[in-house]
Amino acid sequence: MKLSEAKNIHFIGIGGIGCSSLAQVLFNKGKRISGSDTTQSALTDHLKETGIKLSIGHKKENITKNHDLVIYSPAIPKNNPELLEAKRLKITCLTYPEALGELTKDYFTIAVSGSHGKSTTTAMISRLLMEAGLDPTVVIGTKMKELKNENFRVGKSKYLVIEACEYKRSFMHFFPKILVITNVEVDHLDYYKDLEDYKSAFSDLAKKVPKTGLVIVNIDDKESLDVIKGIKAPSISLSISSKKADFSLDRCYLSLNKKSEQKIKIQPQVPGKFNIINGAVAAIVGLKLKIKNKKIEQALKGYNGSWRRMEYKKKMGKTIIIDDYGHHPTEIQTTLKAIREIYPKKKILCVFQPHQYNRTLMLLKDFGKSFSNVDAVIIPDIYEVRDTKEDVKKMPPELLVKEISKHHRDARFGGGLEKTAEYIKKNHSKFDVIVTMGAGNIDGIYKMF
After folding, report:
1. Which of 116, 140, 217, 434 is 20 to 30 Å from the Cα of 413, by its Cα?
2. In this predicted structure, what is the pLDDT of residue 223?
3. Are residues 185 and 133 in the same domain?
4. Residue 9, Cα to own-chain centre: how many angstroms?
5. What gap in Å lies between CA 104 and CA 229, rounded to an integer?
6. Any residues with CB less than 8 A from the CB of 62 and at least 6 apart, and which?
7. CB within 8 A of 173, min separation 6: which ones?
8. 107 to each of 90, 118, 120, 129, 194, how far by Cα in Å?
9. Exposed (0-12), middle (13-18) or buried (19+): which is 334, by Cβ within 10 Å?
10. What is the pLDDT of residues 258-276, one digit of tens each?
11. Number of domains in the chain
12. Can you give the pTM of this predicted structure?
């Protein structure tokens, strides 16, 4: 059963940002959608409100003979009762990346890959295409104001813009015509053996892009330059420092090196040099789609961020609360540096929840050095996902606090989200800015204080 032929589809793990996005795209294309997840969340509540039949908890009764396709998150274990029941009933089962890959075959797909900046760059490209009247379909790992605070869009054109995740080589199921590689820095070491193994995944994806396609890469990132060796498709390069690149980025001005051409001003309404680079990449996509310079400038200037990307949440007295999805050492450093640039003389507290015990252990030393731009750090706990009992045992949160303390004078263990929230309630006035950060369930902590 192909995705295009399926009429009654069930999602296992529908509350995830990826599955929820694809589920809504298919629902809006007229498919009958049901789904389940282990926990209730704002996303599952919203899915119910749209008319999708949703169950909390996984049980075999959620799967019936009426289903002709089951799509499941890669995080779902093989012994999941719904997955086992679907296979018993001989219902076609696809992982979320496999299903999204099927969708990419039907479109002119623009895929955004990389270790960091995927969601923001995907959001910028999506906004640019929308403003230019190209009416794209969008599948993205964040919620966008331009999409009415949704993480998807169903357009009527041939264009599909997607965020391409590298975990377990998921993006190898995709068929992009334009591939963006924002950067390559080793991650997901519970799956990849080392940096070379990690790079090989990006290299394999780049080699999938046809001769008629295009690969866009920032050559200031050495690893990105390595992964495009031997590809079939032409490549377009961006650089801040090298005149050998096709495009130069000088402060916030993008220009084509080999021709005399009017410069494009990249001025998104979000802080950080990395966001200017993300905007430059989006602009190059726009140029290749023959969008006029002025329209590119206007669209990017109107971009003012997305869900959980340095997102302002509320004020407690004089204290500003900002929430961010950053969960890799480099993301933490660049995000906190950008926040420090906005508030150079303010007292900043970062409340960081690491994502996965195994990952925290693998990147422990890098995490330890990530908080130089804030005045204090609290680690409430570690979010458990894909971890073994041995992983949990080897990596207590106190070990991370100890590592951070080698480089920072004020780091502490929060003793869980609730106790951390209590601490913030009592002590928030000591800080001008509090940044809550991580990819787990810390996104709701601001509601607890």
Report:
1. 116
2. 94
3. yes
4. 25
5. 24
6. 10, 34, 36, 55, 82
7. 95, 97, 98, 100, 101
8. 29, 20, 22, 14, 34
9. buried
10. 665 679 999 998 888 889 9
11. 3
12. 0.82
| Claim to verify: residue 326 and residue 400 sit in the same structural domain | yes
Q: Which three-class secondary structure state does DSSP give residue 183?
A: coil
Give the DSSP letter of residue 347.
Answer: -
Residues 265 and 404 placed together within one structural domain of the fold = no
Whether residue 171 contacts residue 109, with contact meaning beta carbons closer than 8 Å, is answered with no
Kindly state whether residues 261 and 202 are assigned to the same domain.
yes
β-pairing, 92-95 vs 108-113, is unpaired
Please give the structure tokens belonging to residue 274.
């990395």
User: Could you read off the pLDDT of 33-61 as tens digits, one per residue?
Assistant: 999 998 888 789 989 999 999 999 999 99
Query: 32-36, 165-169, 418-422: lowest mean pLDDT where?
Result: 165-169
Average pLDDT, the chain: 93
416 and 294 share one domain: no
Q: Can you name the residues that pair with 160 across neighbouring β-strands?
A: 109, 137
pLDDT band for position 396 (50/70/90)?
A: very high
**218 phi and psi angles, rounded to 5 deg:** -90, 110
Sheet holding 8-12, edge to edge: 53-56, 32-37, 8-12, 69-72, 92-95
- Domain match, 266 and 384 both: no
Residue 35: inside a domain? yes
Could you say which of 277, 301, 325 is where a domain stops? 301
pLDDT tens string 345-394: 999 999 999 999 999 999 999 999 999 999 999 999 999 988 899 999 99
pLDDT of residue 141: 84
Assigned domain for 402 exists: yes
- 92 occurs within a structural domain: yes
> Is 378 found in the same domain as 279?
no
The pairing of strands 159-163 and 178-181 is: unpaired
Instruction: Give me the mean pLDDT over the 1-9 stretch.
Output: 91
Domain boundaries, position 406: 311-448
Q: Residue 398 is part of a domain; what is its CATH number?
A: 3.90.190.20
Pairing mode, strands 264-265 and 253-256: antiparallel
